[in-house]
Amino acid sequence: MRILAILQGIYGQRIVDNIILNGPNSWKIEICRLPRLLPYIIEDPEEILPENLPQSNLILSFGEKSGVAELLPEIAKMCSAKAVIAPIDNRDVLPPGLVNQIKDELRSLGIESVFPLPFCSLTQNSSDNQFIKEFAQYFGKPKLKIGFNENRVSEIRILREAPCGATRFVKEKILGLSGDEAQNKAALFHQYYPCLASGKLDRQIGDSILHRAAHITNSAVKLAITLYFKEQVANKE
Question: What is the pTM of this model?
Fold first, then answer.
């Protein structure tokens, strides 16, 4: 799969670094860096975008200003992309009205798009598009398999990880803890990574995106522990 990542700063760079390091070797990932400062109204995308962009199946948009989202339809056309993932980790960057506008524009071009809130909520059920599904097989909502030895977490296998790398950080922190300790501390360790999602109250979800992301990690750990002990009970029967 050919992936083009749109970056403006450290938020996207950290995610791309993790995807390159831990994603399939068959993926080819290229980067388009856009200026940190963009015009309030973008009248001519050609003045901002590179003259040539690589042909890509999937675009990952990590804009830190709303202007990047406005450029996505033009970028997708230039790349002949079939899908776009634009995570909402900060509502100021991707407010609901802009998300709907960009989705409609991309749809009119025959391009599938998803806007996971936060990025680590993405699953293979988020879209029927083959490229989004392939990406979500490896990155998105964390999925773990946990083993115990003498009531302590002794083994953690990452089946799917948060794109930013937080899952690997949390994994190292909870190894050696009891099941209760791991469940109680997973969300806190997620925030310590640190999670770069917005800590502002999001009125649409009634919480901050940061807290939602931490809850997703905590739920992944809790589910993996629950499944482990269910398997142990089943094996004894």
Answer: 0.95
- Amino acid making up residue 36: R
Rounded Cα gap, residues 202 and 207, in angstroms: 5
Rounded Cα distance between 111 and 87, Å, is 16
Domains, the chain, ordered by start: 2-138 (3.40.50.720), 143-236 (3.90.1010)
pLDDT digits (tens, 9 = 90+) for 113-159: 999 999 999 999 999 999 999 999 999 999 999 999 999 999 999 99
DSSP letter at 126? Answer: G
Contact between 91 and 209 (Cβ < 8 Å): yes
Measured from the Cβ of residue 117, the count of other Cβ atoms closer than 10 Å reads 20
Q: Assign residue 127 a region: left if phi > 0, alpha if psi is -120 to 50, beta otherwise?
A: beta
Residue type, 89: D
What does 57-93 look like in DSSP terms, one character per residue?
SEEEEE-SSHHHHHHHHHHHHHHT-SEEE---S-TTT
Exposed / middle / buried, residue 115 (Cβ in 10 Å: 0-12, 13-18, 19+): buried
Residue 200: Cβ within 10 Å count: 12
φ/ψ of residue 81, rounded to 5: -70, 155
The answer for residues whose C-beta is within 8 angstroms of residue 95's C-beta and 6 or more apart is 66
What does the pLDDT look like over 69-104, one tens digit per residue?
Answer: 999 999 999 999 999 999 999 999 999 999 999 999
